[in-house]
Specification:
heterotrimer, A alpha+beta, B mainly alpha, C mainly alpha, B: mainly alpha, Cytochrome C Oxidase, Chain A, two-stranded antiparallel ribbon, 6 strands, 4% strand, C: mainly alpha, Cytochrome Bc1 Complex, Chain D, domain 2, 3 domains, 3% strand, flat
């Protein structure tokens, strides 16, 4: 059910999701079985008069409470770990770590507007405010294996920057700057959704995340940031805007 | 109520139609008014839901603005105009005085006023559909800046103002009701009815009213700020160049109210379930004290969890961890309550009446609803699940259970008491099963959509490549939802038919239940007890006591009063 | 019984409300003031052209049929009828001068409803927040639009409502008078965006989508119906573009001509601020003058080296110098000759590079 995980650290979130889902499925099925047993055993036709006390075997069902408490603790631990990894560390700190380790990174700014994402690139030199900056609508192109630092701002209302494949989501708030960090690990073309009601066309606030190989990314930056991107490892060479592949 | 009433019987005065049916101060009439207005609003909310569900299956049925409007109004109506009036206003008004052996509420005129304020708020809500500029369409959580600058973003300035006005009036009405409930229970209990002998339903209503009283103040302040933003152009929540409003502030104010609000409607529903389950399984509540204390604990904790709605909304990430801990913590009192509820069935002699079927289904659905809250409360998985259909499925498993399953269980259970007539039992059983099946058919697939990463409030899933393959899920949900509403509409016809033409119920206590309301005649007359007064002798759930012939002991008995007294003195 | 009726009535209202709403809901977005409507702009345009014809006809005796046709043409006619009348007029008058004027009344293009519908969806999706719900840059985002250096600007108004002649003024894609832009030029802007402004490049849009979008944009102003804009001509840059001599010659030229507004960049002077003709909003998005008379919004000459050029390729700079920028005080400098213009382009690129290096 979960979309393919393309980021280096998405497994942290996946782990919490899987743990919690399987946990509640098991607890739910067990309690349903107990309930069906009780309802079947103590139905009126079989048991016309109530017992004066709950059978002592059934009283042990309270055990579920302890199971829940232990399960809660494990879940809390795992989830806090994932959260800590993604959001608690300040972006500057992550950036510093990345630089110390000698890993490569790119920075982009994303501005949410009704109903599209403007993505600002620093260009070849990697510095904002120079002549080679450029802006693209709804298209976030990043190189594979780089750390991507995203600065999020909003031009009008609340949006939420959601990349299902990278397991990241953060609200885009007018008047504030929020930060995201992820590390794409798989080339391809993915979708960016808006997860916070932002108006009538909320459902069409769709961006594309295109993860290119490093050399392709450089080539794209150098030659043609405004041209269509078509590499054979992307699913299809043309990104369709209108549904069903056919203009309505 | 004066001293005199407690010591004397009642003389009846002939009342005009207006006084008896419209501007009545009788708690039962007011309760029925709440109930029926709530049911009407439920039809409105349900119809809206069906319309936008059809649109999700076949995008293009509505325009996207209509879709957003309907989603907004569906959410708001189901919370504030259906669940609250039915569970607090309806059942609370009808049952609390009867259950505690009082003749009416502490402030009958305030009670009437609270209903009419509620009625006006409903009318304003409906009017807000038709004003120029259209209805508000920014989600029932009214998040700014969409709501703070609706003229710019939604085109619906007047609609938004009216929506907020209706909301404010509804809160005012429920506040009056809450004050009334608390006063009534604290001051007007029958002789011998100590607090720990109160039926759990009354406890739940009291805790719910207290929660509402404590939580609503920040929201009212926030709503005033929001109205100022819209009307006068202040910058509490609006962000404009050089002016520092903060939209996140509203989220804090709203959810500080919003989370206790969920429990405000959850607790009465749990109370109804306890009453119904004990009656039909013929067993006392497994641990009365545990339920009461767990409820109070959950009520207190509910004030400390609000920010779990905002984990990725720009709050301090460290505080998100704290709120995650409290959120997971709050699952413990609820799991205790549910275990107690499950053990109340155990050892009983279970009659599968319609009310019991609904209660059983509600109980099972609460288990799903509660458990599915865990992935949302855990901050790590909420990164992914925040604002997806997982949330939608989760709160439909809780709120639908509250507002529909538990409510209908209550209606089947107390129908003879309210109207002195019966609803056909076979029909009730079919109704219960169909509701259960269709409800799961429309709510459960939501979990899968959530896992697939489908964001909420999308007009159509077809725009996104990774969602297109789940369109059939939407179609399944829509079919189930249509069938679900059809079932409820048939039920409503039977309900209204039974009110005036159902088989008459002669016995005041058809279900052989213990609590005080079953001592009164069905339907209870004005001022309830006539020339008698109830006296309580024992706890509320004395079932499975006395071997085979009498398996229950009523909570109290009626004592004849010495002298009659006029009903107009209270 | 009474309860039954009570419930029935309220339920009836409850079912009726949403159905009535979905049937009869009114359009939502009503602007508080519309200086000119689509029809008014068209009538204005026709009257203007016809008054030009009348001027030419003055003194010459004309038949009553001509007068009749001219009177008829003042109305907003459909394509067929209109074009027939224009043909008839030309055959009656047999005057080349008048023919060249009356050709402005020929309807050459009409929006394709199907494409307009798709285009409108795309517009509301991507363009509405800056260009306004009605395409008139009205009621836009509250932060206001700003260039990267914080200078307030406005998105293009596609309706011409706030222009005294109902014109849409395109800065970058036409001749100095800026009435129209060819599809190719507009496509370039949509795909590449305008650097330094909030306009991003929507590279991923397909040609069909852009065509639909243009169809919608052109359906917003009636003057498009009478237009047949030619795509702009972008010459190939010379091979020695950034050579020392060119830059030196460019500097000399710049210091004599361009310095008037752009000022001496190298000594760090701030460029001149001058009024931009035609429309102005107050902070709330209301237009200050609504009678169509000119009001002024200030615009600053490009600050080379400080902020990015809107469109930085050499051939674009060349075209801008050659054709000027419509609606501003940047006049066409075509008379300087291609070589001199290339010199200026070299100098500007040199300054830009220097500015980038100094950051």
């Amino acid at each position: 059910m979960l979309p393919q995980d393309i980021s280096q650290h998405g497994y942290l979130v996946d782990r919490v999701i899987k743990l919690s889902i399987w946990g509640i499925v098991v607890v739910g099925i067990v309690s349903f079985f107990i309930m069906f047993y009780i309802l079947y055993k103590f139905r009126r036709t079989k048991n016309p008069f109530p017992l004066s006390d709950v059978p002592s075997g059934l009283k042990k069902v309270i055990f579920i409470d302890y199971v829940m408490i232990i399960f809660d603790l494990i879940l809390l631990f795992m989830s806090t770990w994932a959260w800590f990894f993604f959001f608690v560390r300040p972006v500057e700190k992550i950036k510093k770590e990345v630089q110390e380790k000698g890993e490569k990174f790119v920075e982009v700014r994303v501005i949410g507007r009704q109903f599209f994402w403007t993505v600002e690139y620093p260009g070849r030199d990697g510095v904002f405010g120079t002549q080679d900056d450029f802006k693209l609508g709804n298209l976030l192109v990043v190189p594979e294996g780089y750390n991507v630092f995203v600065k999020l701002t909003s031009g009008d209302v609340l949006h939420s920057f959601f990349i299902p494949n990278a397991r990241i989501k953060y609200d885009v708030i007018p008047g504030r700057e929020t930060h995201l960090w992820f590390k794409p690990a798989k080339v391809g073309k993915y979708e960016i959704a808006c997860a916070e009601l932002c108006g009538a066309m909320h459902y069409r606030m769709k961006g594309y995340l295109v993860v290119l190989k490093e050399q392709d990314y450089k080539m794209w930056l150098d030659s043609a940031p405004f041209s269509e991107i078509s590499f054979d490892y992307l699913d299809d060479d043309k990104i369709k805007f209108v549904k069903g592949g056919e203009v309505r | 109520m004066s001293e005199a009433v407690a010591s004397a019987g009642v003389i009846h005065h002939e009342e005009t139609f207006l006084r008896k049916y419209l501007f009545s101060t009788d708690h039962k009439t007011i309760g029925k008014q709440y109930l029926i207005t709530g049911i009407a609003m439920a039809i409105l909310g349900g119809t809206l839901a069906i319309l936008f569900r059809i649109n999700l299956a076949h995008p293009g049925f509505l325009t996207n603005e209509q879709y957003n409007t309907f989603v907004t109004y569906h959410g708001a109506i189901m919370f504030f105009w259906v669940a609250m009036p039915i569970l607090l206003g309806g059942f609370g008004n009808i049952l609390i005085p009867l259950m505690i052996g009082a003749r009416d509420m502490a402030f009958p005129t305030l009670n009437m006023f609270s209903y009419w304020v509620f009625f006006v708020s409903s009318v304003i809500l409906i009017i807000s559909f038709f004003v120029p500029g259209g209805a508000f369409s920014g989600g029932w959580t009214v998040y700014p800046p969409l709501s703070a600058d609706p003229g710019r973003y939604l085109g619906a300035n007047l609609g938004t103002v009216l929506f907020l006005l209706a909301l404010a009036l509804e809160f005012a009405s429920m506040l009056m009701g809450g004050v009334n409930f608390i006063t009534t229970v604290l001051t007007m209990r029958a002789k011998g009815l100590t607090l720990m002998r109160l039926p759990i339903f009354v406890w739940m209503e009291i805790v719910a009213s207290l929660l509402f009283l404590f939580s609503v103040a920040p929201l009212i302040a926030g709503a005033i700020m929001l109205l100022l933003d819209i009307i006068l152009g202040t910058h509490f929540f609006r962000v404009e160049a050089g002016k520092v409003g903060d939209p996140v502030l509203w989220q804090h104010l709203f959810w500080f109210f919003g989370h206790p609000e969920v429990y405000v409607i959850l607790f009465p529903a749990l109370g109804i379930l306890f009453e119904v389950i004990t009656t039909y399984s013929r067993r006392p509540v497994f641990s009365y004290k545990l339920v009461v204390y767990a409820t109070i604990a959950a009520g207190i904790l509910s004030f400390l969890v609000w920010a779990h709605h905002q984990f990725v909304a720009g709050i301090n990430p460290l505080s998100a961890i704290a709120f995650s801990i409290t959120t997971i913590l709050i699952s413990i009192p609820f799991s205790m309550t549910l275990v107690v509820m499950g053990l109340t069935f155990a050892g009983g002699s279970i009659r599968f009446t319609p009310a019991m079927l609904f209660a059983i289904f509600a109980f099972l659905m609460f288990i799903i609803g509660g458990l599915s809250g865990l992935p949302l409360g855990a901050v790590g998985s909420d990164i992914y699940f925040h604002d997806t259909y997982f949330v939608v499925a989760h709160f439909h498993y809780t709120v639908f259970t509250i507002a529909v399953l538990s409510t209908i269980a209550g209606i089947y259970h107390w129908f003879p008491k309210m109207f002195g007539r019966k609803i056909n039992e076979t029909f009730g059983k079919i109704h219960a099963w169909l509701t259960f099946i269709f409800y799961n058919g429309f709510a459960f697939p939501g979990f899968f959509l959530g896992l697939a990463g489908h964001p909420r409030r999308y007009y159509s899933a077809l725009e996104f490549g990774y969602l297109q393959k789940y369109q059939w899920v939407h179609e399944l949900m829509t079919v189930s939802a249509v069938l679900l509403l059809t079932t409820q509409v048939v039920f409503l016809f039977v309900f209204f038919y039974s009110i005036f033409a159902g088989a008459e119920e002669k016995s005041p206590n058809p279900w052989k239940s213990t609590t005080l309301e079953w001592l009164a005649p069905s339907p209870p007359p004005h001022l309830n007890w006539g020339s008698f007064a109830p006296v309580v002798e024992r706890g509320p759930y004395e079932y499975a006591k006395n071997g085979k012939d009498i398996d229950y002991l009523p909570q109290g008995k009626l004592v004849k009063l010495k002298q009659p007294v006029s009903g107009h003195e209270h | 019984m009474r309860w039954f009726l009570f419930g029935l009535i309220i339920s009836g209202i409850a079912i009726g409300v949403p159905i009535a709403y979905s049937k009869f809901s009114k359009p939502k977005y009503i602007l508080s003031s519309l200086p000119y409507s689509y029809q008014e702009i068209e009538r204005k345009y026709r009257e203007e052209v016809i008054s030009q014809i009348n001027e030419k006809l003055e003194g010459k005796g004309v038949s009553s049929e001509v007068k009749d046709i001219l009177e008829k043409l003042k109305n907003n006619l459909g394509r067929e009828e209109n074009n027939k009348l224009v043909e008839r007029l030309n055959s009656l008058l047999q005057d080349d001068e008048i023919k060249s004027i009356s050709s402005k009344l020929v309807i050459r293009w009409e929006p394709d409803e199907r494409k307009v519908k798709i285009g409108k969806e795309i517009f509301e999706n991507l363009c509405m927040t800056c260009h306004g719900r009605a395409g008139d840059s009205f009621n836009i985002t509250p932060e206001g639009l700003k260039t990267d250096i914080g200078y307030p600007i406005y998105a293009r108004d596609f309706t011409g409502k706030y222009h005294r002649e109902g014109k849409v003024v395109f800065k970058f894609a036409s001749d100095y008078f800026g009435e129209f832009a060819s599809d190719e030029d507009l496509k370039k802007i949509i795909k590449e965006g305008l650097a330094g402004t909030p306009m991003p490049g929507f590279t991923y849009l397909s040609d069909e989508e852009i065509n639909s979008l243009l169809e919608y944009i052109k359906s917003l102003n009636p003057r498009w119906k009478f237009a047949s804009p030619q795509p702009k001509n972008y010459p190939v840059p010379p091979t020695d573009l950034l050579s020392e001599e060119r830059i030196e010659r460019g500097r000399r030229q710049f210091m004599t001509v361009c310095i008037a507004c752009h000022r001496n960049i190298e000594s760090g002077e701030e460029p001149l601020e001058q009024p931009l003709a035609w429309y102005k909003f107050d902070k709330k998005g209301n237009i200050i003058t609504q009678d169509g008379s000119p009001s002024f919004q200030m615009i600053k000459a490009r600050w080379f080296g400080k902020e990015p050029l809107r469109r930085g390729k050499p051939e674009y700079i060349f075209a801008t110098i050659r054709d000027g920028i419509a609606g501003t005080t940047m006049t066409p400098w075509r008379h300087l000759g291609d070589e001199t213009i290339w010199d200026l382009v070299s100098y500007i690129l040199y300054i830009e590079k220097k500015g980038a290096a100094s950051k």
